């Protein structure tokens, strides 16, 4: 699954912009990486245990558990997304965070895009603002992609 911004246009919808996290490893790849880490760790812990340093075994087990939990946490969020759909007079922001899906709807003419950067092109934040409510976007994107997202939204949000 590729991360970044995907812009689609269909007949029924003016524009749909989807941002996803970068998930470069497939399920098979994750299993292979995890299995190889376990194999290397088991061999090292076994050698030390045979040399008399048996207290390493519980710590090796804890390390395997910690790595497994880290992989699980990443897997829980690999299907997350942010989708902005511009359709006629409405702008719909839909977010998925693990299993929770949140949806916000705004009037197109009252919605504006705000781009805050700490320095030129660095540490950027993108937000949709309407009626005093600011919704931050682009948590799965880097600064360059956030700047591109802000540009694309500004181009597409103009009132009809």
User: What's the order of the H and E elements?
Assistant: EEHHEEEEEEH
Termini Cα gap? 35 Å
Q: What is the strand content?
A: 35-45%
Largest sheet, in brief, is: 5 strands, antiparallel
User: Strand pairing plus helix content: what structural class?
Assistant: alpha+beta
The Rg value, from CA coordinates, equals 22 Å
Mean pLDDT metric: 88
- Quickly count the helices: 3
Give start-end ranges of low-pLDDT stretches: none
Count of β-strands? 8
Helix fraction, binned, reads: 25-40%
Order the strands across the largest sheet as they lie in space.
1-2-3-4-5
Shape: elongated
Task: Give structural notes.
There is one protein chain. With 160 residues, the chain is an alpha+beta fold. 38% of the residues lie in helices and 35% in strands. The chain is built from three helices and eight strands. The chain has helices at 27-50, 56-76, 143-157, and strands at 4-8, 15-20, 81-87, 90-97, 100-107, 112-119, 122-130, 133-137. α1 (27-50) packs antiparallel against α2. 12% of the residues are buried.
